[in-house]
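Q: Predict the assembly, please.
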Amino acid sequence: MVGTSHLPILVVLLPLVTAYITPLLGWIDKRICNPLVVVSMTLAFLASLLLARSVLTGGVISYHMGGFAPPFGIELVVDYFGVYMCIIISFITLMAAIYSREYVAKELHESKTVPYYTLLMLMTGGMMGASVTGDLFNLFVFFEILSISSYALVAITGKKVAIMASYKYLLLGAIATSFTLVGIAYLYILTGTLNMADLSVRLQSVYGVGGSSWTLIAALAFFMVGYCIKAALFPLHTWLPDAHSMAPSSISAVLSGILIKVGALAIIRVLFNIFQPEFVVETIPITSMISWMAAAAIIAGSLFAISQTDIKRMLAYSSVAHIGFIILGIGLATGYGTTGGILHIFNHAMAKGCLFLCAGAIIYKTGIRNIDDLAGLGNKMPFTMAAFTIASLSMIGIPPTAGFVSKFYLGLGALETGTWSGWVFIGTILVGSLLTAVFYMKVINNIYFKEPLLREDVQRDETPLGMLIPILILAGGCVIFGLFPRIPLSLAEPAAKLFLGGI
Amino acid sequence: MPESLFGEDVIVRTIARIVAPFIQLFGLYVLMHGHISPGGGFQAGVIIASSFILLALALGLPESKERFKKTIRLPMESSGPLIYASIGVTCILAGGYYLQYGMAFLFPPHVVSAILISAVEIGIGITVMAMIVTIFYSMAGD
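A: Predicted assembly structure:
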């Protein structure tokens, strides 16, 4: 009967089924949408935790859709990394859903409420599916689900700039998905299979052959470009600042917090689950290439962020820098480095989710988007601003917060490579963190120490409780997981070990 | 969009009226034979939707919409995937994997399999039909 053995399909089904129930119930009464989504995401979060327990005790779970055996049927594979992503996705979406109750009522037109929750659930379903699937084509399909719903969510406010941002995102996203589709086609031509585990076995015989390996290299190139656009790695990040700053803040938190990480997940799956580690590290040194791109992303993203005046744009550029940290960890392909990259997915999701929700709360209460106008907010909204400060410290990587742990692991990973480039990467991490400090400190300085223009503006006017609770939970998480990093590491470490098994 | 592309052309209006039910009947045939012959839920949904598009072209958008109101389309769009998902979950409850049809449940396995595949196809057909008509109406300026 229904036991933990069916959890892999349930974590995908819960958000997807909710996405279809929402319009039906929302048609009867709009107010029912939010509780429905919150309950569904709570269940999905609990299911992910149960799944994590069974993965930690029993190892990797394989689930056969329709009872067909893997190379022919569709297989869901829940490994340490997949369940780790599931937990993050359901948790951040749950926080965004709780936050949305009051936020959406004010920021969006009444007629947009039902589409908003429907698309949010579809997007979450796509992300959950992409995390647990063991089939390359299934990954593509789930990526389409999450991308298309995110295009619509970016434009949901209906403002002209938002529609323009969404259109730009749509075009680049369409290029990315077509590239990955071509990559999938090339691999299918070479091997005749789409199952990831089966692909990695069948590709063994392809590596040595001279002629056909060009197809293999082309496939790898298509995958890397496609998924790097999805993950917004530096030269391919141009869609991100517009899309993430123009979306409603609760959606920005989900987009910046987890959606771009699903792109990073796809990069990991392609590099380590499908291709052999020796091939991507030595034959075609793609891992060192993306490490250098990531190092460029860290510096460039931070520099762009410094020059921003709009708070949400600044946070969006900061995401460009931090996806660099994650990809750097993946590209290092050493035990500590990859662990650090995977850990940073979790820490950045919490900190950036919190920051975007805070920015949303500022806009909700005051309508201010310009960083220079934030003066006096420290007295006006003390709890929100305290959370903002804690999350900023986590982004910079100050010791008691979570950001420090993952950056420390990344530094250890860079040392582990034992080459001169390792030292360059350590320098990049340090400079990147310092640059991050520059623009976050500017905001914190404005909040607490700058004299406001008008004294009477500074009345105590805190964010509504429904929006404050998720902000505080996320900020608390930044500190708790900085003090007890073993909790996320218990999944991140075996995940990295599993990926690097071949080295 | 004007009242009708063909104005008050009696031939076009009459033919469209006569043909539409047959298109829908053919759609149902494709739907129910999906598991043993070419076709299935998606194709059937498109065929049935095309009859509404034909009516919209011949009789005009308002009259076509009168026959297939939004209050009917909206529940149909959502219920299809729910039918699909609920059958998948039924398979789990009956002791198999998600969407594993071949188990004995009141009937012998092959009969259960045929019934459930048809039910899934019906779910897909309902959604595809409602979605395609909605997309057509939106593009026509709903």
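Chain B has a mean pLDDT of 82. The interface with chain A takes residues 74-75, 77-79, 81-82, 85, 88-89, 92-93, 95-102 of chain B (CB under 8 Å).
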